[in-house]
Amino acid sequence: MAEKTETKQNSLGEIVSVIVQALILALLIRTLLFQPFSIPSGSMRPTLLEGDYLFVSKFAYGYSRHSLPFSPNIFSGRIWSGTPERGDVAVFKHPVSNVDYIKRVIGLPGDTIQMRDGQLYINGEAVKRESAGQIDDPDVTEKFGPVDVYTETLPNGVSYRTLDLSPNSSADNTREFIVPEGHYFMMGDNRDNSNDSRFGVGYVPLENFVGRANIIFFSIAGGASPLEIWRWPSELRFDRFFHSASK
Length: 247
What we know:
Layout: H1 2-33, E1 34-38, E2 52-57, E3 89-93, E4 100-107, E5 112-116, E6 119-122, E7 125-126, E8 128-135, H2 138-141, E9 147-153, E10 159-164, E11 177-178, E12 183-187, E13 204-205, E14 209-219, H3 232-235, E15 243-244
Antiparallel strand pairs: 1-2, 2-14, 3-4, 3-14, 4-12, 5-6, 5-11, 6-7, 8-9, 9-10, 12-13, 14-15
């Protein structure tokens, strides 16, 4: 009887050990390599849609306290710091609320940024903007009826599409922003429906960057949860699986 009890205790100890090791490994991967994120809003439409699940590269910009769960204030600055590139789609912590946001890097330290009549200007030069037709799909635009789409090409050659939900909206004309050193100017691709550096987000410190969005690994429409397997046949967006998270 004693031997059986001891065997059971040893088995339980092994199970606990395996679980602890698995949790530690998962934490290391999440902190140092890749972290999954889901898209909760439409600010990055048409590039990213609500219900997209993507991997974010944690090592792309190095590590700060925001690389750790709950952002513990145990050190400042970044370790093995990398530089965000213009056009990157990045996850960062809101400078005030510390909530996760995802936007596109538009302005680098020292840049001047302004919107004039829906046209983006960087350092006084208009960013190349070409009509890409219209999208008539509420799942992509969140609107019934056709929506104008434009292709922007940044000075470094990065191209992506933007939505123009409302011509001549308040978001189409802004003051001139001068990006401070050590900070970045972030914008959503859904230009008329994005709380970004033009509005409540402001300039984002390099320390607040969490990582660069890499690839969409799962996508489901209709506000469905991935756990609602019975909705998969009608709601899964198979065409978005393993799609770039920045184009």
